UniProtKB/TrEMBL annotation:
The chain crosses the membrane at residues 41-61, 82-105, 131-152, 159-179, 185-204, 211-229, 235-255, 267-290, 296-315. The keyword Manganese does not apply. Keywords: Acyltransferase, Membrane, Transferase, Transmembrane, Transmembrane helix. This is Acyltransferase. It comes from Acidiphilium iwatense. The keyword Acyltransferase applies. One of its GO terms (molecular function) is acyltransferase activity. Coiled coil: none annotated. Residues 6-315 form the Acyltransferase domain. Pfam families: Acyl_transf_3 (PF01757). InterPro entries: Acyl_transf_3_dom (IPR002656), Nod_factor_acetyltransferase (IPR052734).
Amino acid sequence: MTRRLDIDRAKGLAIMLVVFGHIVARQDPAHVHWYLPLRRAVYAFHMPFFFYLSGMVSWLAGHVRAQPAEWPPLAAARARRLLLPFVLMGTLIVIGKLLAARFMVVDNPPTGMISGLVDLVWNPAHSPAFALWYLFVLFALSLLAPALLWAIRGRLVPLLLAFAALEFVPLPWTLYLAVIARYGLFYAAGICAGSLGDAWTGWIDRRRPPLLALFCTGFVLIAADGAAIPFAARLLTLGIVAMPALHALVRFPGLSSDRILATIGRYSLMIYLFNTSFIGLAKGVLLRLASWNGEHFLGFACALMAAGLLGPILLKRTLFRAIPVLDRMTR
């Protein structure tokens, strides 16, 4: 698969939004009125956009078109790529939170080692490392989609409709089933977009202004007065609008040569795995020095964004690249 720089830039934009959403975890700062509305709007589209990109990559890499004989090696490869980092990083977070809670404020600490690991997989609503959920859900979708597509003889429209139907099926949170059903539609949409190739990218490029105008309108409405709208409705509406709009945005000539977004995008897995750890450490130190309430929060937000983005990149460059197994796992 030839590396697509527009996908790298899109991943860079998406992971920056993920980090922005993680700078506040459980307890909101007091007397800060701008962050919560922005986070509410960001949460309505940033992960749908990520799954759209993942579905597109799955099509371009040929994973979703794998035949039954190819499923076992595909499952093994996906497990190494997604499940292994999920389990290892989840375990590290559980241990780290148990130790750090003795010395500083820790968001969502586990009650114990065993219970923390069980919640990580079986009871994600209480997971001490819920921020890693994307890896588990993507693993499940990357195996479910090829099997479903094979069963329906490679027809993409029924695939899209099947995942759309899951949006309305009440599933439990156990083993992330509810989350898999919630985001499968966006993964399938990315598969369909990838199958269209240049026809899709040409269409979004030609319609960039109205697509971005529609997205911005939805973003403002949800930020300004979206609290009363159910989360699932926000996700479905703005998530669908965001997929073509943000993809078109990163293909804009002014951004097509942007190295920052592309570089961040290439480190997106590393940032996803470690951003909450670096944010948590930075927050724990900063809260010992000053309050993050009121006018102090803007400085905190900038510092925590920098920690969440730059910390994982520096860790990758200084340590993980010197250890081949860790380097391969976090590419």
